[in-house]
Design goal:
451 residues, alpha/beta, 2 domains, 5-stranded parallel β-sheet, 13% strand, binds ligand SAJ
Amino acid sequence: MEYLVVTDGKASKEIVVVGLGYIGLPTAAVFAQHGVKVLGIDVHQSVVDTINRGEIHIVEPDLDAAVHDAVKNGMLTASLEPRAADAFLIAVPTPFKGHDHEPDLSYIEAASRKIASVLKKGDVVILESTSPVGATEKMADWLAEERPDLSFPQQAGAASDIRIAHCPERVLPGKVMKELISNDRIVGGMTEPCGRAAKELYETFVEGDCILTNVRAAEMCKLAENAFRDVNIAFANELSLICDKQGIDIWELIELANRHPRVDILKPGAGVGGHCIAVDPWFIVAGAPAESRLIRTAREVNNYKPEWVLEKVAAAAKDAAASKHGAPVTIAALGLAFKPDIDDLRESPAKRIASILAERSDAPVLVAEPNIEALPEGLDNAELVSLERALEADVVVVLVGHREFHRNAGLLARHGAVIDAVGVLGGNALATPDVRPVDEERRSEKSAAIA
Ligand code: SAJ
């Protein structure tokens, strides 16, 4: 199948991307940049209108220009409804439902049923959403239910009319436009022809390797990657609690331990945020609860970390109150984003901590977040201020290791009551963004040595 523009400036084949969020929109834009005509569909009229104006509704470096150009030159349009195409990519959310983090596949189901009416023989349907094992096969069943006139891989094997694959996205927020192109891509086909068709599609822009496997392995691979990181962060977070109790500087300890050629401890923090690492491990747990003891515990350890930070702030505030003779204690929170040097506040433990502090505090909580212009909704009793002004508070809690905070570590160190959840005061190589490249270099040297 040929997806590239060939001669007359018109795309010979088209794709439909369902879900124009953090993954769907960048993917649509990158396909369009590489000569594939894209129709993006979304359930929100405002998203459709924004994109059709050549604008974006999410924050991601370089995405605005890519969408603007793609819309301007007619390679990307958005709509509420799908139309016939040659390939369909589903990139919708997979949130939780119920009480124990059960995966909610209703968005995938709705998307599948929506595109079913326009499918025709020879089309490829790819699930990109991070999904529990078995989700792609369910998607194939929903499509088959809607279109009894077409054959699907679960019925016709390699001879199916429709080819189905799972190709999980693995891009890092903040580097999406680069990593979409440079990362290796896991391509899980329901049959071999399914895998080959999906691989061919991604090879229009992926410069990494597109590696073929089956759908279940592809689903588990993505979950395992994020669970691996979560478990490793949980180790660092647990160690930070133990060291605090035993009077050991966690940052120094990690630096010392990481001098071992086969030890590479990650960074403790205020908790694990974002839409991925704090979510995906639960999909493994839901699929095999009895066997996933470590993965579940890691989630619990990481989820407890914000509570621990709040306990530390409460203790410091109590100490400060003793010298204030009844006047309200002022608290400053440094950082709201879910990780350093981005403006993304989704599922951010820092934001959650700041909100709880604001709820509990008599005086407004001072928030220094250099990457945003205004405080998000729901953060009442808080004030967005400069770092300098935040340091006037009685108690300061550092929640995100932004560059600006590292650069001002000296100023912070002079404040008498700083709770440093992310190691800006550690004065060590690991926690200092300026030396992060060296850290990364050492990490890859280590990986090579281990391999
Ligand atoms: N964090 C720590 N300590 C660390 C590293 C991270 O506390 O040493 C925290 C961060 O502050 C943040 C959270 O973990 O709150 C997650 O950040 P992250 O940079 O580890 O990952 P994400 O959520 O931005 O992106 C991850 C990536 N997965 C892996 O690195 C295995 C990305 O490649 C995936 O595509 C993405 O999840 C996704 O979409 O699933």
